Amino acid sequence: MYPDVLCFIFTALPKTTLTVKPNPVFPGETVTLMCSVGSDSIWNYQWYKDRNDNVVSQSVRHTITGDTLTISRAAESDQGLYWCEGNRVSRPTSSQPSNAVSLKVKALPKTTLTVKPNPAYTGEKVTLMCSTRSDSSWIYQQYKDWNYNVVSQSVRHNITGDTLTISRAAESDQGWYWCEGNRVSRPTSSQPSNAVSLKVKALPKTTLTVKPNPAYTGEKVTLTCSTRSGSNWNYQWYKDWNYKVVTQSVRHTIRGETLTISRAAESDQGRYWCEGNRVSRPTSSQPSDPVTLTVKALPKTTLTVKPNPAYTGEKVTLTCSTRSGSNWNYQWYKDWNYKVVTQSVRHTIRGETLTISRAAESDQGRYWCEGNRVSRPTSSQPSDPVTLTVIALPTASVKIVTPQGLLYPGDRVTLQCDISDYTGWTYRWFRYNEELPIQTRKTITISLPDQAGQYQCVGRRRGRPQKSDHSFFLPIIITALPKTTLTVKPNPVFPGETVTLMCSVGSDSIWNYQWYKDRNDNVVSQSVRHTITGDTLTISRAAESDQGLYWCEGNRVSRPTSSQPSNAVSLKVKDYQPKTTLTSDKENVFTGDSVTLSCTVESSGWTFYWYRHRPDSTPVTTTSGYSYTLSWVSVSDGGQYWCRAGRGDPVYYTLYSDPVQINITGESKTVL
User: Fold this and answer.
1) Of 355, 359, 367, which Cα lies nearest the Cα of 310?
2) Is residue 481 within 8 Å of 562, Cβ to Cβ?
3) Nearest to 130 by CA among 141, 119, 122, 121
4) How far, in Å, CA of 61 to CA of 77, rounded?
């Protein structure tokens, strides 16, 4: 029998697993290390780094909670080999150590800052560019000086992508600048760039000199701008505080460093300064200190003109005087085109006096004078202009007082001589350059047509001026009386007819008419057979006694009060009643044919009446023409036909024609 044997079986300790996230990690990130034992019991964990005796414990950046070690704000010192091990009260009291995991802490991407230009001058544009070598999609934060002063958008600071642009750099922009990148993906930030010191230098100083100062109006003034630093400067010139740029003009010339004002004026007075510009840096200088240019008014000159106004032919004296100083010589001007008045036959200059003998209308105008001398001021102000008025002799004019409008034969015309200026005139009248005797009044009366012609007048008086100019000739033109036209219808006329005589004047006014027969003293007046209405004379039941020459004449209240007599028209009254003649265009008429009857009578203006079977019957038809056509006749259309004519109101009829027989037979047959 064998003795009892005790057998020992050894079980391996539980396995421990370590996970590290994220790995690798960037400085500043949070790292989570998680330890787990494949057992359902509760474990406590011990953490190790690099060596067995280097236990990781709680700290400001290291937090151990349950199975997790959290490293916040990872640093390069956190890099190394990590492992963990489980412990507990019950058996097994420990686990196997986990596998060692190497935690790598990578440095953040490097950021580089470039500043151009550096140093910069005040007013220049400065560009600060931030770049990160790693990947893309970076957003940059710009800082100035060590107090982490964030540079933000402003009027002069513009941030676009990786670039900060400073427009118009100022001394306040000087300092230390650096930048840092940020983005959404890992790593979420870059290392801050190296700090770059931006230096902003003051622009070179500019000096302005002004000579002479003060200046007198009209003098030449020279303004010189100089910059101590460098060369090749061009200069910009300014006047007064509204930054009004002084540019080239008729009186302002800019050459190099000099602004020359020729013929200085009061408008040139003010504060001037200048500024240099060039191609190389610095491209501009500081503005110079402003210099006030004072422009003094030239001495005042006074002009007197006597007499003024003057009449043509008089002597005029113009005197120029200057209150300041002495030894002045004077220049004389007329009108605004600076026309210099010089010596001539009628113009004499002596000292301060210009004398015009025998003034003419061409001497009229605006005069002024100006003094000149050797010492400063070398000239005076021009005097205020004085308008010399040279009055022409009054002009006479002839006009028609009555009647107004056109002049007609038989008119008496009153002429008047008008002289608008002055009083006390006596008058002289001329017809065709011949003076009319004993005519000294303002008005004269002439009769037409005998005294028609061209009239002129002139005035004379005792005071100044003693006479007027002759008036223009006034032609007295006679207009023919309106033409009158007479029409007589009908003419010739037959006994018993009505005759209408119509008188018309080629004028738009209303006329009354006078009628004459055979003689001027034989006026046709109203009677039983003679009626006058407006422009019409109507003779009813004409008789041989009405035969003769007729004419008419218009009369009215307004001018012209009468017309010319009309043309004379001979009215003829026949001594018999006319008879019509009837004819047919066919002798043999067949049914279906047409036949035309013609009725003729002497004179014109007739209406034709057509009768069948009996002449005293009602007319078959009435026509304005002398023919009557029967179309598509039948046997019933046959018989005797008569015609007669009538005209006027009341109608005057001719005698009936002799009858014409119309025979109509059956349709004609054609023999083959």
Assistant:
1) 359
2) yes
3) 141
4) 12
Please state the φ and ψ torsions of residue 635, each to the nearest 5 degrees.
-60, -30
Beta strands (DSSP E) in 422-518 are 426-431, 434-435, 443-447, 454-460, 474-475, 484-489, 499-505, 512-517
| Apex 605 CA angle, 600 and 606, nearest 5 | 50
CB neighbour burial string for 328-344, b if at least 16 within 10 angstroms, e if fewer: bebbbbbeeeeeebeee
Distances (CA, A) of 633 to 589, 594, 609, 663: 8, 6, 20, 11
Residue 420 in tokens: 């608008």
Q: How many helices (H) and strands (E) does the chain have?
A: 0, 63
Domains of the chain: 16-103 (2.60.40.10), 111-201 (2.60.40.10), 206-296 (2.60.40.10), 301-391 (2.60.40.10), 396-475 (2.60.40.10), 484-571 (2.60.40.10), 581-665 (2.60.40.10)
Q: Tell me the three state secondary structure of residue 77.
A: helix
Secondary-structure breakdown of the chain: helix, strand, coil percentages, each rounded to the nearest 5? 5, 45, 50
User: Nearest-CA neighbor of 515 among 503, 529, 506?
Assistant: 503
What pLDDT band is residue 40 in, cutting at 50, 70 and 90?
Answer: low
Which residues 6+ apart lie within 8 Å of 397 measured at CB? 417, 418, 419, 471, 472
Give me 224's structure tokens: 């010189």
pLDDT digits (tens, 9 = 90+) for 451-474: 999 999 999 888 878 788 899 999
Question: Nearest CA to 397 among 423, 424, 427?
Answer: 427
Strands 68-71 and 62-65: antiparallel
Does residue 386 carry a pLDDT above 60?
yes
Q: What are the CA-CA distances from residue 377 to residues 121, 220, 327 (Å)? A: 46, 12, 12
Tokens standing for residue 141: 């934060």
For 602-644, write each residue's pLDDT tens digit: 888 899 999 998 888 889 899 999 999 989 988 888 888 999 9
Q: What are phi and psi of 188, to 5 degrees?
A: -80, -10
Q: Count Cα atoms within 13 angstroms, Cβ side, for 456.
A: 15
d(CA 405, CA 559): 9
How far is the C-alpha of 272 from the C-alpha of 623, rounded, in Å?
110
Which H or E run includes 532? Answer: strand 530-533
631, burial (CB in 10 Å: exposed 0-12, middle 13-18, buried 19+): exposed
**What gap in Å lies between CA 634 and CA 637, rounded to an integer?**
6
pTM score of the predicted model: 0.42
Classified as helix, coil or strand, 646 is: strand
DSSP-derived secondary structure letter, 395: B
Q: Is pLDDT above 80 for 7?
A: no
